[in-house]
Amino acid sequence: MTLLRAVGLHVTYPGRHGGPPACAVDGVELDVGAGEIVALVGESGCGKTTLARALLGLVRPTRGRVSFGGRPLEYSSRALKTYRKRVQLVLQDPTGSLNPRHTVYDAVAEGLRIHGYGGDERAAVAEALSRAGLRPPESFFLRYPHELSGGQRQRVVIAGALVLEPELIVADEPVASLDASVRGEILALLLRLRTELGLSALVVTHDLGLAWNIADRVAVMYLGRIVETGDVEQVLTVPRHPYTQALLSVLPEAPGNPVVLTGEPPDPSRIPSGCRFHARCQILGSGEAERAGVEEACRDEDPGVLDGGGEAQVACHWARATITE
């Protein structure tokens, strides 16, 4: 069952000094199923955080819609408050996410108080901390963020999300600020929560290694669009889009030489014609696209928007021509 769905989602910001508008999210289709972990990957500036904010209702789409549980997201204060109880955000910087003047207990209980929880607050906070791996939970109640390690602070942030018993969490770079030794513990925690609670997750990251370790499905984003998607093993072992290939080539365990992309991602207010990646594409630059007979299409024809389903898809003329052969 599809839990969260984006359909034709656009988020556009006004241009600077009266210039053309910047299209941060440009026609994205994306599904997250019940009990599924989807990794949204791409380099900085590709629009993945803006997309996550739109899915959370923090940014209202310029066009398109977000639906949850089959119902379109409404943007009234009451509707958004109800929605955010079911969908929670976990940010990458636990130090910045926690008020240094609040105890762990108050940090975790804050959501309960906002939503007018009528049950046993102390028991709910203790259970959330325990699920997040902070045991015995009572020993953390009166501690402050500065008294905790980075991994413990991230667990407190996760507990603050879990206390409302959400159906889905959106985790924006959840381990980026943590030591390597702690990252595995947090990823294992997220996987355990999915198993124990049936929790769904959208994990926003630039790290394909993280996606490999945690996700069921991956969506690769470039310049406001999903350019490749499918089962994580399929996409990351046999990448078809040149951009995905380049991202994977720089991982330490990747075979061969890393692919060094030329230039910077284009300005989202001036998206190029044809494939939006063509100006940096190593396949086009090496002549492989010309040999496949798609060089002109790469420069002039938009490969189109991928649908949000779970099947493997790629927005690349060269990849499609190669598959056809």
From TrEMBL:
<dbReference type="Pfam" id="PF00005">
    <property type="entry name" value="ABC_tran"/>
</dbReference>
<dbReference type="InterPro" id="IPR003439">
    <property type="entry name" value="ABC_transporter-like_ATP-bd"/>
</dbReference>
<dbReference type="InterPro" id="IPR027417">
    <property type="entry name" value="P-loop_NTPase"/>
</dbReference>
<keyword id="KW-0813">Transport</keyword>
<dbReference type="GO" id="GO:0016887">
    <property type="term" value="F:ATP hydrolysis activity"/>
</dbReference>
<dbReference type="InterPro" id="IPR017871">
    <property type="entry name" value="ABC_transporter-like_CS"/>
</dbReference>
<dbReference type="GO" id="GO:0055085">
    <property type="term" value="P:transmembrane transport"/>
</dbReference>
<dbReference type="GO" id="GO:0015833">
    <property type="term" value="P:peptide transport"/>
</dbReference>
<dbReference type="InterPro" id="IPR003593">
    <property type="entry name" value="AAA+_ATPase"/>
</dbReference>
<feature type="domain" description="ABC transporter">
    <location>
        <begin position="4"/>
        <end position="248"/>
    </location>
</feature>
<dbReference type="GO" id="GO:0005524">
    <property type="term" value="F:ATP binding"/>
</dbReference>
<dbReference type="InterPro" id="IPR050319">
    <property type="entry name" value="ABC_transp_ATP-bind"/>
</dbReference>
<protein>
    <submittedName>
        <fullName>ABC transporter ATP-binding protein</fullName>
    </submittedName>
</protein>
<keyword id="KW-0547">Nucleotide-binding</keyword>
<comment type="similarity">
    <text>Belongs to the ABC transporter superfamily.</text>
</comment>
<dbReference type="Pfam" id="PF08352">
    <property type="entry name" value="oligo_HPY"/>
</dbReference>
<dbReference type="InterPro" id="IPR013563">
    <property type="entry name" value="Oligopep_ABC_C"/>
</dbReference>
<keyword id="KW-0067">ATP-binding</keyword>
